[in-house]
Specification:
By secondary structure, the chain is α+β, with helices and mostly antiparallel strands. Helices cover 51% and strands 12% of the residues. The chain has helices spanning 13-23, 39-47, 68-78, 84-106, 118-135, 142-158, 161-185, 193-199, 219-249, 252-260, 263-276, 308-311, 326-329, 346-363, and strands at residues 26-28, 34-36, 52-53, 114-117, 201-202, 215-216, 282-287, 291-293, 296-298, 303-307, 364-368, 374-375, 383-385, 387-392. A hairpin with a 2-residue loop joins strand 8 and strand 9 (296-298). Bound molecules: protoporphyrin IX containing FE. One of its GO terms (molecular function) is heme binding.
Length: 395
């Protein structure tokens, strides 16, 4: 069968891939990138970092763009930032952040309710406040970060590398503005994850110290890690909030389970709705040697895209991709990826999203709005604008 040709940029990612996936596990873009559309092939690629390298960008990306021992050392050093103790310590702060935001949105709202955009007014604002609170950054950065999210989104949509580089530069300046005072404060710097990163050592030899086995992180590595922890993921959290609220506004039975069920049940629903409509569309790899995938020969150096939105809707593992069934679909769920590059931030993302939903649903009903939502187009997915009506609950 010939490989279908399509350009994933600028298309609604589900409709762009649902039909292609039925024909073949792989598609090919006009520029020759192989697009992995099905679950089994995605697992094969994501778990085989030797044949499918993540070193796809000309910019330093830690840990995303690293491979092998260096990647493993970076993950070993940084994964504990998302450990259970850290998350338990953060949980009450996130509850406060969510409660304050929900209060602001419902302030003075009568029984007729108020329309909000679940992406911009709820998800993005919450994501920025939650991340700055977690990292110990000044609350005054909120507006700057929200402006940056918009600029970043527009730059990725434009596909213009110079614009993307300028936006990345702008973000690096924000990061350096929070690092500099900590460096000058030395031992007096506040105890938070940002300061902990400055003090972190990785199990990698220091070229400047012969025979060494460990070294501190370099400035550019710290900046890159913080860029990944904030820059990329603020947008994912905001878009997930849109997908979740649009879904919940149309499914009151799920609202009850999120509001009154266990944390685990709420977490399972928070995983399942983005499985159906995954806004974190894709990650890239490059083949390190000739390799056969789904009967196709991929040459060394050819680009491969893991299309998570399609992969998560693969009928071979999820027979009814649009049906909400968190328990049955949990093992097929690859919203956070798999293999050595699997998302380290998943515990934080889940905690943030569950906290936001539970704080909101405790005090408000979420209803569909008459204003139609606007879909996103690739490189991201989900909703660009997700209008829902919040109605204060009588208590
Ligand atoms: C709903 C929100 C999120 C989604 C859907 C998501 C999804 C993903 C996926 C699919 C990957 C795998 C990438 C690959 O295989 O190349 C990934 C990697 C990553 N995620 Fe997330 N993520 C989210 C939130 C977060 C958060 C909150 C953080 C940190 C604060 C984070 C940090 C990272 C990092 C650093 C990587 C790269 C890991 C590596 O290459 O070893 N993510 N994420």
């Amino acid at each position: 069968m010939s490989v279908p040709i399509f350009d994933p940029t600028g298309l609604e990612p589900r409709s762009a891939t649902d039909e292609l996936r039925a024909e073949s596990p792989l598609a090919r873009t006009p520029d020759g990138t192989w697009v992995v559309l099905r679950h089994a092939e995605a697992v094969r690629v994501a778990e085989d970092a030797e044949n499918f390298s993540s070193a796809v960008s000309r910019f330093l990306q830690v840990p995303n763009g690293r491979d092998g021992a260096e990647h493993a050392a970076m993950r070993t050093a940084t994964d504990p930032f998302f450990g259970p103790t850290e998350m338990a310590r953060l949980a009450p702060r996130l509850r406060r952040v969510a409660a304050v935001l929900v209060d602001e949105l419902l302030d003075g709202v009568g029984p007729e309710g108020t329309e909000v955009d679940a992406v911009a007014a709820l998800g993005a604002v919450f994501a920025v406040r939650a991340q700055t609170s977690w990292l110990g950054w000044p609350a005054a950065l909120e507006t700057e970060l929200l402006d940056w999210m918009v600029a970043n989104h527009e730059a990725s949509r434009s596909g213009d590398l110079a614009r993307t580089a300028a936006v990345a530069e702008r973000f690096d300046a924000i990061i350096r503005s929070v690092l500099a005072p900590r460096r000058s404060a030395g031992a007096e710097a506040p105890e938070d994850p940002t300061t902990a990163l400055l003090r972190l050592e990785v199990e990698l030899p220091d070229p400047a110290v012969p025979g060494s086995a460990r070294r501190p992180l370099r400035e550019e590595e710290i900046v890159s890690i913080l860029r990944n922890w904030t820059g990329g993921d603020l947008g994912s959290i905001a878009l997930c909030a849109g997908v979740l609220l649009m879904g919940l506004s149309r499914a009151p039975e799920l609202v009850e389970r999120v509001r009154d069920g266990s944390e685990a049940e709420a977490g399972a629903i928070v995983d399942e709705l983005p499985r159906i409509d995954d806004p974190f569309v894709a990650n890239r790899r490059v083949a390190t040697c000739p390799v056969t995938l789904a009967g196709r020969r991929i040459a060394a150096g050819e680009r491969v895209m893991l299309h998570w939105t399609s992969i998560n809707r693969d009928e071979l593992v999820v027979p009814a991709p649009d049906a909400v069934d968190p328990e049955a679909n949990a093992t097929a769920n690859l919203v956070y990826g798999t293999g050595p590059h699997v998302c380290p931030g998943r515990p934080l993302a889940t905690l943030e999203l569950v906290t936001l939903l539970r704080e909101l649903l405790a005090v408000a009903e979420v209803r569909p709005s008459d204003t139609p939502g606007e879909r996103e187009v690739a490189a991201v997915g989900g909703w660009a604008h997700a209008p829902v009506v919040l109605v204060p609950r009588r208590r």
